[in-house]
Amino acid sequence: MTPNRRQEQDGDQHLVVLVLPGGKVSSHRPARAWHLSNLRMRPFTAQIRRSGVTAVQVRYRVRGWNGAERSPVADARAALDAITKRDAQARVILLGHSMGGRVASELCRDPAVVGVVALAPWWPDGVSVNLRSGTPLIVLHGTADSWTDPAGSRRKVDELQRSGKSAEWLGIDGAGHFMLRRAATWHRLVADAVVGMSRGVAATKTGERR
To answer: Deepest in the core among 20, 89, 146, 169, taking most CB within 10 A?
Structure first.
C-alpha cells in the first residue's frame, strides 16, 4: 500500500481486519500454525498491519468444517466477540480464504462487520451469504480454481446484487485456488478492497456527524 493509503486508514483507529484461513471439509485434527492454510494468510495479515490497520488472524481449534458442527464458526465468533469487547466501536472487515469465506458468510450479519472480502470462497450450493444491506462484499476468485467453484461464487454475487446488496465479483485470470499464481495481483486487490471499505466507513462516520 502507498503512504497515502496508510494515512487514509490511520484515521480510523477502530478498524480491524479479521483474517479467516481455509481448512478442510472434514477433519477434527488440531489446527497448527504451520499448516499451509494458516501460512497462506500470513502475508495478507502482515500486509494489512504494515498499512497501519489492525489485523487479527484466527487459528481454529480443528482443521475441518465438519458438516453441521460448523467447527470454525465458533472460533471465529469468539475472535470477533473479543475484538468488540476490547473496543465497543470496532468496525470489522472479514477477510476469508476458501473455508474462511464460508465462515465469513456466517458472521457477516454481525453489526460490527462493515465489509467482507472473500478469496476463492467455498460456497457450495445451498450456502447462504447473510449479508446486511449496506455491507459491501468483494469476491476474488481465480478462473482456473479447481478446488472451489468460481462460477458458483459468481452466481452467488449475482443473486446478492439482484436482492439489492452491495456485492462485486472479480475474476483473476488463470489463477488457481492457493493464490500462488499472480500472487501480486491477489495482494493488490485485497489492499484495494480494504482501502475502499475503510473509505466507506469514514464516509459513513462523516455522515453520522452531520
So the answer is: 20
